[in-house]
Design a protein that fits this description.
By secondary structure, the chain is mainly alpha-helical. It has 17 helices and no strands.
């Protein structure tokens, strides 16, 4: 009996040690997130410089297939940042793909992705060009599956069998990087409810990934596993890592930071929760994606009941500014997205010349 008690004490001490290390890692990650928020404008400036170079290349080339490539890179960059710019470069992709069936297919896939980002599930389902394996040109299959899987991740529970089918196909592609292979394999295991195997694969994917956006997606998925296991501090740790990567991408769509802010609110860390929520709200306004703005407003309102008078007055002032901005955007911005897509990307009314174009494999994951 004495040995059993001693063994139990050792296990308990080991558990306390692991918990302490994890909590310390969380505190360290939160401080890193605080610093990233302070430096967020630096990441935006660097992003805009890259976009300016792409715009310069776009204006100087005369070959439509290359113009499409530059427009695709601009679309990929702005798709997580601003809906108006996303629509603009999607329309350019449509224009430059006129003589290239392969590029037209990818443009349609990108259109579906934009609908998924805006939360328009009906248009996403109706516009998504799901092809059988033999119908997809080998020169674009890696990019095709990357964009479609990325789109499906915005509606993770709508069709589990379809998710698994797409992941099975993507994993067989030999040209995708090892980080993507680990990520897709982890998503597949998670779809099969084998979270332990999924976690091991996703951790490998995170360690080998170089793209901040891909690391953000991986970290968010790992956080969801810990949420299912009800290990709160690990969920918060990986949400904070995902938020840091989103800021570095940069992205105005901040689902991980939104979730983390709500958890910190429940933990009693009202100062951080309020700071993070205000950041999400301001970035949501910049993005002009309506669903993102609405969710951010709800979170800010839920925080008001627990803030002191000074902090609450600042929050109310921010929400008042939001009402003004939202009413203006309703006239010229937020409601503009669907109309612009209808006007600029109506594929059914055009006649195309058949052709093909071999191009290098580049995706938003590898930016």
């Amino acid at each position: 009996m004495g040995r059993i008690t001693q063994y139990a004490r050792c296990l308990y001490a080991f558990w306390l040690l692991l918990t302490s290390c994890s909590v310390n890692s969380l505190h360290k990650s939160l401080h890193e997130l605080d610093r990233a928020l302070i430096s967020s404008s630096t990441y935006i400036d660097g992003f805009e410089r890259r976009m300016d170079l792409l715009r310069q290349e776009l204006s100087q080339t005369e070959v439509d297939s290359l113009k499409w490539e530059y427009s695709f890179e601009l679309f990929s960059g702005y798709s997580l940042l601003n809906s108006d710019s996303t629509v603009l470069y999607l329309s350019k992709m449509n224009e430059y793909s006129y003589e290239y069936p392969v590029l037209r297919l990818l443009t349609r896939v990108c259109q579906s992705e934009m609908y998924s980002l805006s939360g328009d599930k009906n248009r996403f389902n109706s516009s998504l060009p799901l092809l059988s394996e033999g119908e997809i040109p080998s020169s674009i299959e890696d990019r095709y599956y990357t964009i479609i899987i990325d789109s499906y991740s915005n509606f993770p529970s709508q069709n589990n069998s379809k998710d698994i089918e797409l992941l099975d196909r993507a994993i067989e592609i030999t040209t995708i990087p090892s980080s993507l292979h680990f990520y897709y394999s982890g998503l597949r295991e998670k779809a099969y409810n084998d979270n332990q195997e999924a976690l091991e694969l996703l951790e490998k994917a995170y360690d080998t990934a170089s793209s901040p956006y891909l690391k953000a997606c991986i970290a968010s998925t790992i956080a969801s596993i810990y949420h299912e296991w009800d290990i709160r501090y690990q969920e918060e740790l990986w949400l904070s890592k995902a938020s840091i990567m989103c800021i570095q991408t940069p992205a105005t769509i901040q689902p991980s930071l939104y979730k983390l802010a709500m958890m910190l609110f429940e933990d009693g860390d009202l100062e951080r929760a309020s700071t993070y929520t205000r950041y999400v709200l301001l970035k949501a306004i910049e993005s002009q994606y309506t669903d993102t703005v609405i969710n951010s407003v709800r979170s800010q309102l839920s925080l008001m009941d627990s803030l002191d008078a000074k902090e609450e007055s600042r929050s109310r002032a921010l929400l008042l500014a939001l009402v003004v901005l939202f009413s203006q955007q309703g006239k010229s911005g937020l409601g503009r997205e669907s109309r612009a897509v209808q006007l600029r990307t109506d594929f059914s009314r055009r006649r195309y010349v058949r052709g093909s174009h071999p191009f290098p494999s580049r995706t938003r994951w590898l930016r």
